Amino acid sequence: MSSSDQLLNAREAARRMGITTTCLYDWLGQSDRGLLVIRGQAVTVNYFQGGPRGQGRIRIEASEIERLKELMRVVPQAYVLRRPPVRVMNFPGITVPLGRPAGT
User: Fold this and answer.
1) pTM summary value
2) Is there a contact between 63 and 48 (Cβ–Cβ < 8 Å)?
3) Each residue of 6-24: pLDDT tens digit?
4) Within 13 A of 9's CA, how many CA atoms are on the CB side?
5) Among 3, 15, 57, 59, which is least packed, fewest CB within 10 Å?
């Protein structure tokens, strides 16, 4: 079994990701319900859970941890210069002259 196929327990997986074990469990629960979002992207975490009713210890592949770490990576974005908004002096859609009616 290569290091990328190595199965890690929850504590080691959380340590490698730089989060707490309880945070990892929370992320796994959110992932199970389709609610986990990392940096604006919906994410599903693939992991193994043994036991007769799925209540056993959690094991996560090292390659999955690396994938999650890459999803958390911040990539600097170039600042886009925007033009200031153009002030429009007329009122689109209004076809009558503005102001008080003549003669009053």
Assistant:
1) 0.67
2) no
3) 999 999 999 999 999 999 9
4) 3
5) 3
